[in-house]
Amino acid sequence: MDSILQGLGQAFWLIITFDPDLYEIIAMSLRVSLSAVLVASAIGLPLGAWLAVNRFRWRRTTIAVLNALMGLPPVVVGLFVYLLLSRSGPFGVLGLLFTPSAMIIAQVIIITPLIASISHQAIRDLWAEYHDLLISMNATRGQRIRALLWDGRRALLTATLAGFGRAIGEVGAIMIVGGSIEHSTRVLTTAIALETSKGNLEFALGLGVVLIALAVAVNMTIHGLSGTERAPAW
Amino acid sequence: MSTLAGTLATGAAQGCEAGAGTRQPLLPLVLERAEARARGKLLIGPVDLTLGRSGFTIVMGPNGSGKTTLLRLMHGLQRLSAGTIRWNLPEPIARKRQAYVFQAPIMMRRSVLDSIAYPLLLRGTPRSEARARAADWAVRVGLGAALHRPAPVLSGGEKQKLALARALIGGPEILFLDEPCANLDGRATREIETILLDARAGGTRIVMATHDMGQARRLASEVLFLYGGRVHESGAAKGFFAAPETPEARAFMNGEIVE
Amino acid sequence: MKRSYSLLRAFAAFLSLVLALSAAPARAEVMRMAVTTSFENSGLADVLLPAIREDTGIEVQLVVVGTGQALRLGAAGDVDAVLVHARAAEEEFLAAGHGTHRREIMYNDFVLIGPQDDPAGIAGAESAAEALKRIAAAQALFVSRGDDSGTHKKELSLWSAAGIDPAGGWYRPIGAGMGAALNTASAMNAYVMSDRASWLNFGNKSDLALLFAGDPALFNQYAYIPVNPALHPHVRADLALRLEEWLVGARAKELINGYRVNGESLFVFNAVSK
Ligand SMILES: Nc1ncnc2c1ncn2[C@@H]1O[C@H](COP(=O)(O)OP(=O)(O)O)[C@@H](O)[C@H]1O
Ligand SMILES: [Mg+2]
Predict the structure, then answer these.
(1) Chain B contacts of A129, Cβ < 8 Å?
(2) At what angle do helices B127-140 and B4-17 cross, to 10 degrees?
């Protein structure tokens, strides 16, 4: 109990003293996770909608694989991306290993299945509702997907935020491909892991509190900007 | 609503009359031995029928007799299992010149204005023009005060009016309606009937299922009586209402239970 | 056709957005060095890195991993140099041609940690081997890194020197880093072998105490190996050499020998200048 209180105290202290290292780490966490969410949403949302709207031979298999990929251990993704980006790997010449780009790539791989899967479920329900109308109006495939994405935007926002939650809290993969290099690729989660390994449990917990506060702040900001959770739910 | 009649006619006509000289008519529609099945079970058919260039066809029949299935079959929502359905135009073109109003109106999660404008946007009409015409239509069907309300929160009657405006805004040559007034009160029913008569006057062919006998008498120029998934009796409205030929139609008209 | 173009455009816009979001400001003299967790945990890096920057203008980015992974990173050319402590593995690394040469820099030592009341009585042992024998005889809980790290390898070599094949319920290999091993030992009130630096900096000691140290068998030599530019032309061999010069120089000697945690010195500088 004492440790937990001390952790909260540490978090509060870190925030109000504007510890520059802390803000650097927060900025890196946000930059990596928000970029990853942006990329993963641009892939995952249309993919989810496409899977909901189209009937094709490997559809069930694709969905099953997608759902399975959601459970992929981040460490495995990290290893996979490491092997790709390593100087001895196929994309080594790009020199991306141990950079924020590498962390973004790993996170995109981790959260795209999640975003695609949640959006697939949401869009599938909406499609069941809209199906006859859109067919009747002779909407093309692309127009259908666009209408579903737009009208399902609240559910999709939820998918996106779930992706963000997974990204900002992820540690295994970005530790491997980012290296947690101080002043370069260190983010909140890898800093927490580092402090824990040093036995600085209160400090690590303090960082954890900061991480949660950050996630809550991002969620509220996005809900605020989009007007969800305020307008009538329809 | 009383001023509606004068202004309504134009909207529906725009689509068909533009270039009427050069444009091939969509109708007649011919069904030959048409059948619809679901998992092998025969839903309707075989149906032989021809829809002429103009008129107001009322589809009647007991519950489960196949009214909805027939409308969906003609509109292309229900897969044809056997027989043929032939428009006067190739299928892809024909699909673009019709509209359908569902028994339970499907409301998109958008404002009334955007919902009505949507069919125009689908065909590439610029957004501002689509919105202007949608606002116009909203006023015509009596939704002028609800332009910016979310469509899903409208009342049942308002939803039907929205669905009607959305169906008519593209100027369809033929409009299918499936019991559009089933859940409405007398006043809303009359308002919708006025809109339909105006659309017809503007040149839109109408095919509508209903089991409101009074409505059928007010609107029909032609009647299809379905029974057991087949067209049991059909003909001009006058003759049908004066003296139905089959005992089932007669019983149905008299309000008896027809099994 | 038109649609596929707009799709392409969208994708291109997207890529450039990602690049814009992830592009880091270019820095001139940056090199990466893989180091072991125990080195990072000692806190010495916080003293050395600013001094290196000041004297040489080089920004050294530390990738903190286990010895095995550090050498893998070096072999793959993902870092420019490694600073590790596992003699046999280092020799192998050099034999395979992954590094240009090996330069000894400094050493620290390992210590045996355990419950304050010392149920196995290792505090009075003559040697490290003797201490381990007592732990095995008492079947006292012992936490092992079990992660094939330099520290783990050292621990195994000590067990075999003691003539013991550690196994049984009392021996708990956890497959994790030094910090995790110390946290586990702290929670189970078990014996554990740690490098002195990690132990001194460790913040969650609870009932644990340093019970045995000082046997030369416990000394832990750190060596610096630049990655071979003949195999990996992109490595900053020039910076790696300049860093080496600094590491074996007078300023490094002063900082390494003078580094203290809780008043105890941790490292002994033993580089020989050429
Ligand atoms: N998808 C379907 N699967 C099985 N039976 C169906 C399906 N759609 C309609 N039916 C059946 O077909 C018959 C005609 O239905 P419908 O056209 O809805 O009748 P109506 O609109 O005249 O009440 C009914 O017996 C109905 O249960
Ligand atoms: Mg019906």
Answers:
(1) 106
(2) 140
